[in-house]
From TrEMBL:
<dbReference type="InterPro" id="IPR002052">
    <property type="entry name" value="DNA_methylase_N6_adenine_CS"/>
</dbReference>
<dbReference type="InterPro" id="IPR029063">
    <property type="entry name" value="SAM-dependent_MTases_sf"/>
</dbReference>
<keyword id="KW-0489">Methyltransferase</keyword>
<protein>
    <submittedName>
        <fullName>Putative RNA methyltransferase, RsmD family</fullName>
    </submittedName>
</protein>
<dbReference type="GO" id="GO:0008168">
    <property type="term" value="F:methyltransferase activity"/>
</dbReference>
<dbReference type="Pfam" id="PF03602">
    <property type="entry name" value="Cons_hypoth95"/>
</dbReference>
<dbReference type="GO" id="GO:0031167">
    <property type="term" value="P:rRNA methylation"/>
</dbReference>
<dbReference type="InterPro" id="IPR004398">
    <property type="entry name" value="RNA_MeTrfase_RsmD"/>
</dbReference>
<dbReference type="GO" id="GO:0003676">
    <property type="term" value="F:nucleic acid binding"/>
</dbReference>
<keyword id="KW-0808">Transferase</keyword>
Length: 176
């Protein structure tokens, strides 16, 4: 796993082989971040990374200058790995929540400029996540939700739909 650009550009982190996480490919990550660039001023963006997995997205957000990134990850080993990565880059702009995303959504009282959600594609509740994020008011006005999902999910009729991007088997839907 590598950081694509920003202050930590080129840094690599070896993901343990025992991990169940499916990290976003470098190709898809680079392309979706190019799209997000058009909507975001990184230095003024507070970000939330749901289903943080390996921490790849959180690291990229911090590298690009986000002053605060909150990562939510339930798996204990994955959370430990994310903590180790954050220690290696020496950031103090990161908060790791070790817990269930759905419980976090219900109890979170902070709003974010950017929410990045990369749930397991087979998660039964996957189709409900965009609605929950808007229902619980996690996005600031004009905030952006970037939602990674499989090719069989279609959110084009959602009232907050902005655009859809596909990079191989990786699909992103953006909501505003």
């Amino acid at each position: 796993m590598r950081i694509i650009t920003g202050r930590y550009k080129g840094r690599r982190f070896d993901i343990p082989r025992t991990f169940k996480a499916r990290p976003t490919t470098d190709f898809a990550k680079e392309n979706i971040f190019n799209v997000i660039n058009g909507y975001t001023d990184w230095e003024e963006t507070t970000a939330l990374d749901l289903f943080a997995g390996t921490g790849s997205i959180s690291l990229e957000l911090l590298s690009r200058g986000c002053p605060q990134v909150v990562s939510v990850e339930k798996d204990r080993d994955h959370a430990r790995f994310i903590s180790q990565c954050m220690e290696k880059i020496g950031t103090e702009n990161h908060v790791l929540i070790k817990g269930d995303v759905f419980r976090f959504l219900k109890s979170c009282h902070q709003q974010f400029d950017l929410v990045f959600a990369d749930p397991p594609y087979a998660l039964p509740e996957l189709p409900t996540l965009p609605d929950l994020i808007f229902q619980y008011g996690l996005l600031k006005e004009d905030g952006l939700l970037v939602f990674e999902h499989g090719k069989h999910d279609d959110f084009s009729t959602h009232p907050h739909f902005l655009e859809h991007r596909s990079y191989g088997s990786v699909n992103f839907t953006l909501f505003k």
